[in-house]
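INFO  loader      accepted 1 record
INFO  loader      residues=233
INFO  predictor   begin
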Amino acid sequence: MPEEFRDAGGVPHFHGHRERLRGRFRQKGATALADYELLEMALYRAIQRGDTKPLAKALLKRFGNLSEVLGASRERLKEVDGVGDRVVDELKLIKAFAERTAAEAVRQRPVLSSWPALLDYCRAAMAFEEREQFRVLFLDKKNTLIADEVQQVGTVDHTPVYPREVMRRALELSATAIILVHNHPSGDPTPSRVDIQMTKTIIDVGKPLGIAVHDHLIIGREGHASFKGMGLI
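INFO  predictor   done
INFO  writer      dumping tokens
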């Protein structure tokens, strides 16, 4: 390492910077740190030797914000100079923790009475995915979550949905109600004509089986849309 990157004792400057940053985090919490500082700390384990600040700033410059960084695909992340498998694994681990933590706030509670937690979970899981996902939340008669399953993964603007398969799975799980959720990678959660027709078909298939569709949520980077809230259900 060049001498200009070492202190008088020969220790790389980033060592002192890491300790100072950790100290600020311990004493004042995350609110005292900028987004790039939180990200550079998150990269410490993946990059044990070297300054992680330039890479943190490069990631934010490329993707825009922390949520976009965590939601980016492995392939796109690796397009940033300095990002290898260890960095990608660390970022995906953080995303997994965020999703699991949000999911815990939904499980074992009546979903309809914990709607903000449900929206937080769906946003963490789907808002920044680069391809459409169609998932179904299966509920029991107390509206407690039985299962949360991704039924299909499609392209950037389309996911094939098979209403009878959705209901077959609901019957297997003894679900009495479901909530449909899918994301719009474009960021705009406005439902399309296809979304509306598909939802109507699933409702019609479920009625004679005694399986209700409580809502269909569309998750986007810019917010969400609720079919029930819009009067579409």
